Every structure is written in C-alpha cells, then in structure tokens.
Amino acid sequence: MREIRNVAVIGGGLIGMSWAGLFLARGMNVTVVDPRQEAEKQLGEFVKNAWPLLSDLGLTLSEQVQEADFLTDTALLRDIDFVQECGPERIEVKCEIVASLESVLPADVVISSSTSSLKASDIQCGARHPERILVGHPMNPPHLVPMVELVAGKQTSEQTMRTADAFYRAMERVTIRVKKEVVGHLANRLTSALYREAVYLAAEGIADIEDIDRAISYGPGMRWALMGPHLTYHLGGGAGGYRHYLDHLGPTQEARWKEHGTVELTEALKEKLIAGVERELDSQDRETLVQRRDQALAKIFVLKKTYGF
User: What is this structure's pTM?
Assistant: First the structure.
C-alpha cells in the first residue's frame, strides 16, 4: 500500500481549506489546486486562524503554522499520494476533474470526493481507473467535525476503501462505511429529513425560526452531540431499554411520521426563512458566529473524548 505523505486538495473553498488545515496539522505535505489566484491568500489566512484550535485539540504535530503549496492547474501536480477532491457539486465538473487528475497521477493514487450528494459510481463514469475513486464526505468544517463517510462506487476496489479508511484514521477522523449508494449518503439524509420538517413547521406558522432552532440546539441537539437517535431512545426506554421504548412508544413515533409535512421552497417561503435567521443573528456578523461555533465545536470534541462518546 502506498505511503501517504503528499496530499492534493482540489478546490480551495470552505471545505477544501478546512481539509488542508487538518492535513497540514497532521504533518502532510499539502498542495491546494484552485483556478482562483485569490484563493491562495484566503487559504493562508484560514490555516493561520485554524491552527490554535487544531493545536488545542492535540491535532498539530508542530507548533509552527505550516503552509500549503498552491497551484491553479492540476496539470502541474507532481508526486501526489492521495487526493481530496472538493470541486463544485456538479457531476460534469467532477468528471472533468477526475480526467485532469488521471492525466498526471499514477494508477494507485486514491481520489476521494467530498461530494455531499453525488454518487461515486457517477463520478467514476469515464474514468480510466474507476477502482480508485470513492466518496469521502465530511461535515463542515472537516478540521473540527471528525466524521467522514466512506462510500464505494460500483467499481471501487476494497483496497481503495481500506487505504482511505487508514488515511482518515491517521488524520484522527471517525470513519463511517455507508453500505449502499444513495443520494446524500447517510449524514446529509438524516439532517435533510430534520430540515424538511423544520421548514414545514415555519411555513405553517407553528413556530418562529428562532424557536425552531432553539428547540433543536437546547433540546435533542444536546443529546445528539453525545449519541445518535437509536442509543438515545435506548436510554429513553428506561430499564427496559430500546425494546421497551419501541414496544411502548413506537406507536407515538409512527403517529408523528404520518403528520410530517412536505413543503416547496417558494420565493416567499425563502424570504420568510431568511428574515427569521436575520432576527436570530440579531446584528451579529457571520465571522463572529463562525469563530464562536468553531471554538464551541473544539470544546465539544474534547468533551466527547473525555467521556468516551
């Protein structure tokens, strides 16, 4: 198995910069490729700002902030051992990126896509070495949220999956194998189901945006930060555990499932949602909110490790 020391991140947006920061912290030689020249400065600032939190989490191997190399063209890549692809969420663009990468990469270099919804099998279409392509989907921001979903395409080799799994674990990530390809993989499907109901509740005037968000962040979201829904309901079943919960409270879940709504994101509804979020922000700028979120995520990360969650 190829030793991974040199990592290419394709795409210097939010996800790409976050991945780059993590990989640098873990001692990788990182090259970021983005056609926008201004992305180089943004990348440097992002990594510099992220380094203290990465250090607090024990993820950095050096006190000194490390810098990534920057290119505007994949054709200039050399000596790469692993690729984290973070290009636009359009299948034709993903396939173009794969084609450009395959013109410069050896056949055994894994290409892992950060795609949030697309299937690896579709990204493999037309590839010369489809067996090396998989989905390695994080949650934003990947340098602070440890989960990575690994999804194989129809032609992905088991060796590719093992290589990716070992790499992400070395990056101190929590890997999850999704057994079947579905649009949105696993985590995004779960969050999408909740979001649909949150939008429906707002559209129907059942609660304000602010209260819907508070209901999650101060209610089930606090439990979900420690354990998932199945284990949460196992504890909710008392001494009888999950079996007792399903036998006695399962019917109430089914009743709620039947009431869940479907809603269309009309322009009027979008404006209502945006207005609610702006009220919730209460003049707080986005950058301040991002900083507060990232600091809190780092504390939650440590807390989970401390208590074994």
Answer: 0.94
- Fold adopted by 6-178: Rossmann fold (3.40.50)
Q: What is the pLDDT of residue 219?
A: 97
- How do residues 34-67 score in pLDDT, each as one tens digit? 999 999 999 999 999 999 999 999 999 999 999 9
Per residue in 258-278, pLDDT (tens digit) is: 999 999 999 999 999 999 999
Exposed/middle/buried for residue 125 (C-beta within 10 Å: 0-12, 13-18, 19+) = middle
Task: Indicate the domain borders of the chain.
Answer: 6-178, 188-307
Scanning the structure block, which residue is given the tokens 């034709």? 92
Considering only CA atoms, which of 300, 173, 294 is closest in space to residue 226?
A: 300
CATH topology assigned to domain 188-307 = N-(1-d-carboxylethyl)-l-norvaline Dehydrogenase; domain 2 (1.10.1040)
E runs forming strands in the chain: 6-10, 29-33, 69-71, 82-85, 110-113, 133-138, 147-152, 174-178
133 near 160, Cβ under 8 Å? yes
Q: DSSP letters along 120-139, please?
A: HHHHHTT-SSGGGEEEEEE-
